[in-house]
Design a protein that fits this description.
The protein is of the alpha+beta class. A 4-stranded antiparallel beta sheet has the order 3-4-6-5. A two-stranded antiparallel ribbon has the order 1-2. It is built from 6 helices and 6 strands, in the order H-H-H-E-E-H-E-E-H-E-E-H. It folds into 2 domains: 61 residues, Orthogonal Bundle (Arc Repressor Mutant, subunit A), CATH 1.10.10; 78 residues, 2-Layer Sandwich (Gyrase A, domain 2), CATH 3.30.1360.40. The model has no long low-confidence stretch (mean pLDDT 85).
């Protein structure tokens, strides 16, 4: 089956059930007739911009990224940074960004969506983002831009 069909089913599943792990999502997709691997699920999660949000039981579940009311990526990024950014530091070509628990993936997706030219890529966990810049000077410029958005 094609990726677009699978990703539609993923949206349906996470909208209807509290899916906490990639393994749970893989099992659910298999029940829907998709024979896929965890690596495929991981790629789908990244492409779809899925984030983990706090569940009612104290755990975390996958969710679609919050939609901006105005559709403006800049305003959405500002809001996400103001609400979730704790601190940042630079180490070589990497900005280490600390967020509130469960917010790192959403914050990273917002920053990536802005398309800063200095930005090369990122890895986001639960509360930490490693944001890679093309050059060391780019790292400082990118950090300043992020700090300005968080004001």
């Amino acid at each position: 089956m094609v990726k677009s069909s699978r990703q539609k089913v993923i949206r349906d599943i996470i909208s209807q059930k509290p899916i906490e792990t990639q393994c749970q999502l893989t099992d659910e997709l298999r029940h829907h007739g998709f024979n896929i691997t965890q690596a495929t699920i991981s790629r789908d999660i990244k492409e779809m911009g899925l984030i983990k949000v706090a569940g009612g039981d104290g755990g975390f579940r996958y969710s679609l990224p919050p939609e901006s009311i105005s559709g403006n990526n800049l305003e959405r990024a500002k809001r996400m940074l103001r609400d979730n950014l704790l601190r940042m530091e630079i180490t070589h070509f990497i900005i280490v960004i600390r967020t509130l628990p469960g917010a790192a993936q959403g914050v990273a997706a917002c920053i990536e969506g802005l398309g800063f030219s200095e930005f090369a890529g990122s890895i986001a966990g639960d509360d930490t983002i490693f944001m890679l810049a093309h050059e060391n000077d780019d790292c400082h410029a990118l950090m300043r831009k992020i700090q300005e958005l968080a004001l």
